[in-house]
């Protein structure tokens, strides 16, 4: 029986740090961000659906999605963001679940790295959910520093997701990323050992 662990957090809470520990142990990862990009590649049903909703203005000259243009549009207007999410959600879900099923055949542990895991209700499809946690203050500071955002831009991005405290309360496992990267990695290693996925 394969165990499927969902890993989530919020923007700039350090989810990649945690996911990389699993990758370093050759544990397969389904990456929700990669899937979200793949389902709107040129020629996909997903891209056709997005163009149908938002018009051809959101395309680049060569036919790909103009992510910056679309991003600016949806982050400044919650209704538009909702419309985008509703449009591509079914394509993303179908592909994530397909990949999970494939990997379950090959590995005793599969990681589903899904940024909007709770928002899109994936928890029902998984055996457990781990949340990568930092305090909202640290989250804001890291995001401003990482992406060169103003405080307002960072707030808008953070507020487009559930709060990290809300996710922490729902989690089966919490990886606390308020300390050093080494401390965070150690928490993941400890969990893997405890579950007998590594020795």
Automatic annotation (TrEMBL):
Its EC number(s): 2.7.1.24
Keywords for this protein: ATP-binding, Coenzyme A biosynthesis, Cytoplasm, Kinase, Nucleotide-binding, Transferase
Name of this protein: Dephospho-CoA kinase
Key word Calcium present: no
Substrates-to-products reaction catalysed: 3'-dephospho-CoA + ATP = ADP + CoA + H(+)
Similarity comment: Belongs to the CoaE family.
Pathway where this protein functions: Cofactor biosynthesis; coenzyme A biosynthesis; CoA from (R)-pantothenate: step 5/5
Binding, ATP: 12-17
InterPro entries, A to Z: Depp_CoAkinase (IPR001977)
Function text: Catalyzes the phosphorylation of the 3'-hydroxyl group of dephosphocoenzyme A to form coenzyme A.
Organism field: Enterococcus alishanensis
UniProt subcellular location: Cytoplasm
Pfam family, one: CoaE
Gene that this polypeptide is encoded by: coaE
MF term (GO), any: dephospho-CoA kinase activity
